Amino acid sequence: MSYIEVNSLKKDFVVKKKREKGKLLREKETVNALKGVSFSVEKGELVGYIGPNGAGKSTTVKILSGILTPDGGEVKVGGIVPWKERKKHVKNIGVVFGQRSQLWWDVPIIDSYNLLKDIYRIPQKDYEERLKELTEALQLEPIMRTPLRLTSLGQRMRAELCGSLLHRPELLFLDEPTIGLDAVSKLSLREFLKWENREHGTTIMLTTHDMEDIEALCSRVMVLGHGKKLFDGKLSDLLERYDTVRNVHVKFSSEYPNLKLPEGVEWQKGEDGIVLSYKPSKLPTAKLLSILQDAGNISELMLQPENTDHMIAAMYKELDL
Predict the structure, then answer these.
(1) Does pTM top 0.85 for this prediction?
(2) Are the CB atoms for 226 and 232 separated by under 8 Å?
(3) Which domains does the chain have, with CATH numbers?
(4) Residue 79 Cα distances to 4, 5, 89, 271, angstroms
């Protein structure tokens, strides 16, 4: 049996519309957030859960963490039904919402950790060992006695992550953990998550719109759209299908090469050579390279696929998400 088992998960929300002029009551509309989603996750996996806004990602996380009760389907996490045995369940999970804080805003960070120690009933020795391990890994020592409200966004996210892991949870939910972070903070956070997963076998479920997070962390990805699971597999398999446009930067030895490009290849002259865009499905890379070689002596050539965000956007568009 898998660590997380989700079968035919359903969740609806009733939304009241704006009252129309001349009507006494507002009309209600039922939104189907989840429409029979099923998947399983093995212990120790690091899974990406992606999709456009409103796809149902956060709703899934809230059900798996016991915050929401579904309208249909079955869910078990480590053999526990989250919303039925919530006190028992939350001892085994950690949750980080990128836009919400679990630490106390006006008190020093160390005081928040001491309160969490009492809430989770962590033995003093275990708490001290784990706190030392996490503060070193996340480089939190300089800000431990600083109120959370006086820290930067990157520092706050590292502090939030530490707080969610103090009780050594078996499962960690991350909902947009790198939102708004600078490049250095993102890299630091990714390295820590890989370390935590490798050293402690923590199962991590990551929802994000930052595809670089998915590329750096997750070997498996699930795509959600309109409340349904649309894809479940390797990220490389997903991107291979939508790697539809590639760019070539080429610099010739001569200033005016005899370049004859087939229809469908777009190009523009840059400050340092020529940049071409082509579709591998219509023009094989080998054929394009042959055309470029025939045009003249090449001094520099760089071939690169379209970036991941563009490919995911193309997938959303094709699937009408």
Answers:
(1) no
(2) no
(3) 4-240 (3.40.50.300), 246-305 (no CATH)
(4) 8, 9, 10, 61
